Automatic annotation (TrEMBL):
GO terms for molecular function: isocitrate dehydrogenase (NAD+) activity; magnesium ion binding; NAD binding. InterPro entries: IsoCit/isopropylmalate_DH_CS, IsoPropMal-DH-like_dom. The lineage of its organism: Bacteria, Thermotogati, Thermotogota, Thermotogae, Petrotogales. Belongs to the isocitrate and isopropylmalate dehydrogenases family. Coiled coil: none annotated. This is Isocitrate dehydrogenase.
Length: 331
């Protein structure tokens, strides 16, 4: 039996985390959840959206499944997501983007992975004002860049993939992105059997829309990785389908790429697949590969039934009908 920290989160978070909990009961997954609250709902009580007991629970259990947590724009507390990644040194953000066969989307042949540096870049949040100017400091270190580059190549090797594309803007940001590229080049030299290429981020954005099937594993500094993973999610049918994992030395937090989607919260129409796919990554991480496969197959079957799907996928259903369909393929 594994104990896993579960953070329901804000917005649609509780609606989709409860789907995972119910589906894991049907899977008979050997997991007991330790539920801890973080986010908007605890600010009044604890004076912070990220109380220490949340960090303690994740440190103790080493594995967590997290619903999205709202980050207010322009004011208030620092992003809980960013703080967690920093405090637990979850240096790699792994975001597999794979088309679901049977779902009618713009592309049906996407199978790529965004490996996003997760601890620095512009997400250090170092900003200041001088008179009428506002500045942000973008920190790129050799240490974090080497780690994410190594992670990407190791991932390719362990998962029988073929190619790494390093994304940058080193023509403009010669020193910072230059350092990032030095580190990806160095890793590429250590893995001569893996194909390696570099793409400038603007061109990469166009290439991904034109020929997504040409890309395999994309490694990028924090902000480019964030933007490209939302773009890539759009290629396969939207944010409701894209999972992610934040991985450190011995701790991992699994969460969807999407945010708390306040525009659709409490309407019962949130797509649970992105978080379910994140929970499949969690099962694989715990080496419960058979259960992972079973859930993956159930989702692949479910998306063929357009009527039961959530509106973001063009369906007439809701979270509940989707959950029930998935369960019908598990029992
Ligand atoms: P964050 O800053 O936390 O990344 P965001 O501003 O990028 O958040 P999201 O919360 O990810 O925004 O939502 C972007 C859009 O995608 C919204 O219109 C939202 O309704 C939609 N969306 C996100 N997740 C889902 C989901 N699971 N099911 C259906 N629609 C979703
Ligand atoms: Mg976002």
């Amino acid at each position: 039996m594994y104990t896993v920290t579960l953070i329901p989160g804000d917005g649609i978070g509780p609606e989709i985390t409860s789907v995972v909990v119910e589906i894991f009961e049907h899977l008979k997954a050997p997991i007991s959840w330790e539920v801890v609250d973080a986010g908007e709902t605890v600010i009044d009580k604890y004076g912070t959206p990220l109380p220490d007991y949340v960090i303690d629970s994740i440190k103790r259990n080493k594995v967590a499944l997290k619903g999205p947590i709202t980050t207010p724009i322009g004011k208030g507390f620092r992003s809980v997501n960013v703080t967690l990644r920093e405090k637990l040194n979850l240096y790699a953000n792994l975001r597999p983007i794979k088309s679901l066969a049977g779902l009618n989307t713009k592309y049906n042949n996407v199978d790529l992975v965004v490996v996003r540096e997760n601890t620095e870049g512009l997400y250090k949040g170092i900003e200041y004002k001088i008179d009428n100017a506002a500045c942000a400091v973008r920190v790129i270190t050799k240490n974090a860049s080497e780690k994410i580059a190594q992670f990407a190549f190791k991932y390719v090797k362990e998962n029988n993939r073929k190619k790494v594309t390093a994304v940058h803007k080193a023509n403009i940001l010669k020193i910072t992105d230059g350092l990032f590229l030095d580190c990806t080049k160095k890793a590429a030299n250590e893995y001569p059997e893996i194909e390696y290429e570099e793409k400038i981020v603007d061109n990469m954005s166009m290439q991904l829309v034109l020929n997504p099937e040409k890309y395999d594993v994309i490694v990028a500094p924090n902000l480019y990785g964030d933007i490209l993973s939302d773009l890539a999610a759009g290629l396969i049918g939207g944010l409701g389908l894209a999972p992610g994992a934040n991985i450190g030395e011995d701790v991992a937090i699994f969460e969807a790429v999407h945010g708390s989607a306040p525009d659709i919260a409490n309407k019962g129409i949130a797509n649970p697949i992105a978080l379910l796919r994140s929970s499949i990554m969690l099962l694989d991480y715990l080496k419960l590969n058979e259960l992972a496969k079973k859930l993956e197959d159930a989702i692949s079957e479910t998306v063929k039934y357009i009527d039961c799907l959530t509106p973001d996928l063009g369906g007439k259903g809701n979270t509940e009908s989707m959950k029930n369909k998935i369960i019908s393929f598990l029992d």
